[in-house]
Specification:
This protein has helices at 17-25, 31-42, 52-59, 63-75, 95-103, 105-121, 163-170, 174-183, 197-210, 252-272; strands at 2-4, 10-12, 49-51, 79-80, 86-89, 124-131, 134-141, 156-158, 213-216, 223-231, 237-246. It has 274 residues and is an alpha+beta fold. The chain folds into 2 domains: 2-94, Winged helix-like DNA-binding domain superfamily/Winged helix DNA-binding domain (Arc Repressor Mutant, subunit A), CATH 1.10.10.10; 104-272, GAF domain (Beta-Lactamase), CATH 3.30.450.40. The protein starts with a strand and ends with a helix.
Length: 274
């Protein structure tokens, strides 16, 4: 959302519409804290270094407010500017989510299950939950790093682009899914990546019908993955579990025949403990 300044230059309004709405109706809402968290949330594995202008565009928060947020975060040791122009996160920012990732019962039991599954299959395994428009990795056992970015506990990726994300999206009520699809920002990671909302909707519908999702080099060339849902008591989908394999060694047919059955068993056993 933009407004004109006295010099007739477009600038981004002080806050995005969601923050504005909450701040107006709730006197207990701390606007400055919300801005700071929005700024932190703008950093991704794909965009690890961002300028004030880029952060302002991504968050829809004014550059002046972004600058103040970065100054405060830098003072707290959570971000720094290696070149005096762009900013990147520092390890201390992990303390914000470490207590959840280390202490949540799901993460604890999931890690043990992943260790056992990974040992039997000799492939990397992960568990993730839906976190806004992204998947949040809460447990992971890595065998081979098949991705150009380092994925670990606490990593986040766009839900639409991952096998776990599509499984989780397939469990959303239809109205919530449509809202997600309306705001999804699709981008081509590889030549195999779905490029339209219609294609994505079909992929999600397929995951719903099959009870699993296969991602065939849509996120990274050389990487195939398969994901299944994890259910809490009452049948609600609370997380997804996946296995990643090298495309050069494991075909899609082999995934269905050899990887999917033990993955389903592991997810079902873990679901029983939730």
């Amino acid at each position: 959302m933009k407004k004109n300044n006295p010099d007739n230059q477009d600038v981004i309004s002080d806050d995005n519409e969601e923050i504005q709405c909450v701040a107006k109706r709730d006197p207990n809402f701390m606007l400055s804290l919300a801005r700071g968290l929005e700024v932190l949330d703008a950093f991704t594995p794909q965009r690890q270094r961002l300028t004030i202008s880029q952060l302002s565009q991504k968050t829809h928060i004014s550059r002046a407010a972004v600058r103040r947020c970065l100054y405060t975060l830098a003072t707290l040791g959570m971000v720094h500017s290696p070149d005096g122009r762009s900013y990147e996160l520092l390890p201390r920012v992990l303390t914000v989510g470490h207590a959840y990732l280390a202490g949540t019962p799901l993460a604890k039991v999931a890690q043990t299950a992943l260790d056992n599954l990974s040992k039997s299959l000799n492939h990397s395994c992960s568990v993730a939950t839906l976190d806004g428009d992204n998947v949040l990795y809460i447990a992971r056992t890595a065998v081979d790093n098949l991705m150009s970015i380092d994925i670990g506990r606490g990593s986040r990726l766009p839900a639409w682009a991952t096998s776990m994300g599509r499984v989780l999206l397939s469990a959303l009520p239809e109205a919530e899914l449509e809202i997600y699809l309306e705001r999804a920002k699709l981008m081509r990671y590889t030549q195999h990546t779905v490029s339209t909302v219609a294609q994505l909707r079909n992929e999600i519908a397929l995951a719903r019908r099959q009870g699993y999702a296969i991602n065939d080099q849509q996120l990274e060339i050389g990487l195939r993955s398969v994901a299944v849902p994890m259910l809490a008591r009452g049948g609600k989908v609370v997380a997804a579990m996946n296995v990643g394999v090298p495309a050069s060694e494991v075909s899609v047919a082999q995934i269905r025949e050899h990887i999917l059955p033990p993955l389903r068993r592991a997810a079902a056993e873990l679901s029983m403990s939730l």
